[in-house]
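Quick illustration for those who missed Monday's session on complexes.
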Amino acid sequence: MRGLTLDGVGVITYRTDLPEPTLERPSDAVVAVRAAGLCGSDLHPYEGRERVRFGVVPGHEVVGEVVAVGSDVDGFDEGDRVLMPFTTSCGACGPCSEDLSARCTSGELFGYGDPSQPEVPALQGGQAERVRVPLATSTLVQVPAGMPDNDAVLMADNFPTGWHAAGQADIVPGRPAAVIGAGAVGLCAVVAAISMGAAPVVAFDPLSDRRDRAQLLGARPASPDEETTGFRSVIEAAGTSTAQRLAVQRLLPGGTLSVISVPTSDRFPITPIEAYDRNLTLRSGRAPVRSILDYLMSMVVAGEVTVPGEVAVTHPGVPLRQGAETYRRFASREPGVVKAVFVP
Ligand SMILES: NC(=O)c1ccc[n+]([C@@H]2O[C@H](COP(=O)([O-])OP(=O)(O)OC[C@H]3O[C@@H](n4cnc5c(N)ncnc54)[C@H](O)[C@@H]3O)[C@@H](O)[C@H]2O)c1
Ligand SMILES: [Zn+2]
Ligand SMILES: [Zn+2]
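Prediction with nicotinamide-adenine-dinucleotide bound:
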């Protein structure tokens, strides 16, 4: 099978000899990938900020067609167009029952092998021709007819993640919100914050092309140097300590900082004294995408909110053999490269 592997820091290999995924358990499905996104989260191991097991197929934002279902799988058949959130989930454990699918007690991350547990097999990701989906009944989601693949890729991660980021930012209709970082996650958070009634929504990013995209979605664009403060809600989707400190400084007393970036430092951006003296709230965490999709997908289908695929996906249809070059262009923040989507 053809696909990419991450073989070291900065090393993406295009391979044609990967093993075909099979049904390993009766609850598995196998999906033929139609499109798989490249995410800011893929950059953490690629740039060496996060330790992972090398040799694993990355990719956790996947839409595809079911090609095999195990005997225990309900609700899905060969030929269905489906997406899978970036973690698997059982739908029945404590966290799943409390709409926290990202912390399912039997959940796994696509495209990740824990380096501290080499005996546990990695769950291969979707930047390949096919992918095995554990717990398929409760993990997979049918893609509505008419939804473009690129929007479905955003529904597998970035859009529900942006929605979750805004949802935990204590947005008050008519009060200002800031989004720090206008990558694909930040752009999705802009759409969510506007939809939840924040006004104005100001999007900060050092890159002018990303600011322009945020403006297309209804935000006021701002350079990180701009000293605007006074936000009730601040969503941090940049992932650097500098961005997090600026995020804290922009909050009003009583404000909420929603950190949606994956932490790369061992310190909170707010000290206990600052939180006390300004009555600040900090929220963070992995987005429970599968839990959110139950209602977010129905809002999309009803036309109540629009997935920003046309604005955020700048490089659709990238062949897998261009994997190494595409990772490099995204990681170097080449102007105009916001989100690439691979197609096998
Ligand atoms: N919590 C979750 O479940 C979850 C899910 C998906 C992604 N993420 C994380 O969200 C973050 C964003 O993902 P992405 O795909 O949009 O990444 P990205 O790297 O494309 O976007 C980050 C953006 O932040 C901007 N930025 C950098 N420094 C800044 C500063 N000081 N001020 C303002 N903007 C600044 C960059 O220019 C860039 O546009 C990553 O950390 C990713 O791992 C978290
Ligand atoms: Zn992602
Ligand atoms: Zn569960």
